[in-house]
Amino acid sequence: MHGKHQETVRVSARRPCARRWEAWVRAGAALLILGLLPLGARPVAAEQSVFGVAPITAEADVQPGSTYTASIQVRNEAVSSTTASAPAPLRIKVYAMDWTMALDGTPRFVPAGTLPGSCSKWLEVNPAEFDLPPGQTQEVRYTLTVPADARGTYHTVLMFEPGGQPVKVRGGGMTVIGRMGSILYATAGPHRKSGRIIGFSATAAGMSLTLENSGDDHLRLLGGVTVKDGTGKVVRDEKLPGAVVLPHRDNRRQLGLNWSAPLPAGDYTVTAVIDYGGEELLGAETHIRAP
């Protein structure tokens, strides 16, 4: 199959997406809801997890040269059993790390202050280590000290890690040593949310789209793809998976989609529309022929 031509188009204006705060989620469920950071050393099912954090993602508008304080709730969800001894408290250690993503969205974690666009070194947390008994919740406060020259969106992740001890998970005898994280975005001073599609292709089996963050704010992508046959009839109408595209380094993201079944022989028009949270949508279109 060969593409005849490809073009990227701008479409109608749209209001920016609202800021969102995530609800309470358990450790295993968080990995699925977030769709971004596999923070557990070994993913576990939601019913097996024993501790969670909320919010999983926090976004704040901050002023250059100011301080900003907020908090994260950490809960030990272990329950006492009538047939076993009471679970021991979890010793939780809290620390910041830098993170970024590969083109396919695979996360990478490095020491605090390593990457451009990091705000890890702005952070102070209290408490940085604590014991958390079963069924109890601990508030962890964090303060960002924002440099006077900060401009745009910066990011970090606060890791919450059991102190190396095995964690017995509910519903079975498995043990897990892992960590969870809460992603923090801080947007300071004037900033620009901008994106552009730099690659779009399709085949009889699926499509691939690459988007570049050309601004200094992070982008949250929502969108869909439609396929029309030669008569203009819609034969595929698919949602794209949600994704985040960071500013600064590693500012490109590739999204792929496989059709539920290969396209029959014929000519097709494939159109993608992306909402990245800015004032307008992005669109791309290509014409293909399935053999």
Characterize the structure shown.
With 291 residues, the chain is an all-beta fold. Strand 5 (90-101) and strand 6 (107-110) form a beta hairpin. The protein has two domains: 2-16 and 193-290, Immunoglobulins (Immunoglobulin-like); 27-188, Immunoglobulins (Immunoglobulin-like). Strands 1, 16, 17, 18, 20 and 21 form a six-stranded antiparallel β-sheet that branches. Strands 3, 5, 6, 8, 10 and 13 form a six-stranded mixed β-sheet that branches. It has one helix at 27-34; strands at residues 2-13, 51-54, 57-62, 67-76, 90-101, 107-110, 123-126, 129-132, 137-145, 152-162, 167-168, 175-176, 180-188, 195-202, 206-213, 219-229, 234-239, 243-245, 252-258, 266-275, 280-290. The protein starts with a strand and ends with a strand. The protein is built from one helix and 21 strands.
